[in-house]
Amino acid sequence: MTASGRSARGPAFWGGLFCVSMVLIGAARIFDAIDATTGFVAMAVVAGVCMPQAYRAATSAARRAGDSSDALQAYNKRMLAASLGYVVGLGMATLVYERVRLDTPGLALLALLPAAPTLAMIRAMARYLLDETDEYLRYRTLLSSVIGLGFVLTLGSFWGFLETFGVVPHVWAWWVVPVFGVGMGLGQCGIAARGR
Amino acid sequence: MNNRLKVLRAERGWSQQDLAGRIGVSRQSVNAIETGKYDPSLPLAFRIADVFEMPIEAIFLRD
Q1: Range of the domain at A141
Q2: Which CATH class is domain B2-52?
Q3: Is B1 in contact with B57 (CB distance < 8 Å)?
Q4: Of the partner residues B17, B24, B31, the one whose CB lies closest to the CB of residue A195
Q5: Secondary structure of residue A88 in the 3-state scheme
Q6: Complex ipTM more than 0.85, yes or no
């Protein structure tokens, strides 16, 4: 793949590749096809490759079309940093947990590694809503956040009941963040498609 | 709410991007307002009216 070939691909390609890869890795981990270390390395590689590319492609496409704002660019940068921090924190927490015996306070601190970047994501969203002067872009972000929240609540409730009935295996609660992100991304795509 | 944004913009030979720059929003916002997918707030409607030098009610119409 050439450098020019990479830059020609849009944000939907990189976002789609990221989502599909994460779902496949997650499914492989849930059904014990891969161990935690392999899962983390695969997730880190996927995130490290797809997320910066998706950010660059989205920023460049939005600039060309006049569909961006300073607040949106700052938000994307903050979210990219927080998302990469989340993936790294998640992987480190999983690896340390499997290799080092910790007491309860130590485990609580370890759990904060991926949880802290999640707080940074929420802060980035709050900052964006405060900084954005374009009311339509702000409305779109709020709507896509509600769609993301709907994904988490609906999928979480559905999976929870399936788990109670013994149909599906247990899924860790930290999956809410990727599911929220996927739901929000799909919401943005849906709103953009409706606007065309 | 209906609006005459597209017609007024065409009369002046402005693209969506031109109008967006004049009222200080993104092109997407202009497109969403023009196609009736988003109703602007009162402050934004006033800014649009100022740019066209027309009263709000001459640009935005009730359904």
Answers
A1: 134-196
A2: mainly alpha
A3: no
A4: B31
A5: helix
A6: yes
